[in-house]
Write a structure and sequence with these properties.
The chain has 211 residues and is of the alpha/beta class. Helices cover 24% and strands 27% of the residues.
């Protein structure tokens, strides 16, 4: 899989473009910036964008999703059903953040851990429900790559003081779902630098063996 990283989104949120080198099938993970750059790469590499995989419904991770849909009308915008309420609260979210209201286009599909029909080429996209940062927060696992949204960061975890947040739930999600994955999996979070499952199990101050 090929990954392009666009780290300069609103509030430091990251947009990812991931695609299969052979089939050129691709997806956007969260959508917070760089639509013009993404469009250039898509045209240059002849990528067919299939999905916009939203990890959760906070404004900084869907900031440019309307522009993405206008640029690539065929793309399917997908989110976990339990975070639809956050999209309904978008005006309130934006007011609290001090930014103009974001208009979200119609969601094309809802995902959960029973979703099995997502793929890029011959690589299945596994949906892992990791509540805690939000009720419907999810991670997307593609081969040995995990897009963790705001659940797990390098050396940290997502905040739990927003709507639907829960420290006990995020700890359970990470311990029982993410830390049971292969330790060599590379983690690409919603903010900050990439890491690995192995590194976080050992050194994350919330869980690490050396804390």
């Amino acid at each position: 899989m090929e990954i392009k990283i666009f780290p300069n989104g609103i509030f430091g949120a990251i947009t990812y473009l991931v695609y299969d080198k052979k089939t050129k099938e691709g997806a956007i993970v969260d959508c917070t910036c760089a639509i013009e750059e993404i469009e250039q790469i898509v045209k240059k590499e002849n990528i067919h964008l299939k999905y916009a995989l939203i990890t959760h419904g906070h404004f900084d991770h869907v900031y440019c999703v309307s522009k993405l849909k206008k640029t690539f009308p065929q793309i399917q915008i997908l989110i976990h059903k339990e975070d639809m309420y956050l999209l309904d609260k978008m005006e309130t979210q934006c007011t609290m953040a001090g930014i103009e209201d974001i208009k979200i286009p119609c969601i094309d599909g809802l995902v959960d851990e029973n979703t099995t029909n997502l793929c890029l080429g011959d690589k299945k996209i596994k949906v892992i429900h990791t509540s805690g940062h939000s009720k419907g927060g999810v991670c997307y696992l593609i081969d040995n790559i995990l897009f963790s949204g705001d659940t797990l960061f390098q050396g940290s975890i997502g905040r739990c003081d927003l709507w639907g947040g829960s420290m006990s739930e995020i700890e359970k999600s990470i311990k029982e779902k993410l830390f049971t994955l292969d330790e060599n999996i590379i983690v690409y979070p919603g903010h900050g630098d990439s890491t690995t499952i192995k590194y976080e199990k050992e050194y994350n101050p919330y869980f690490g063996l050396n804390r």
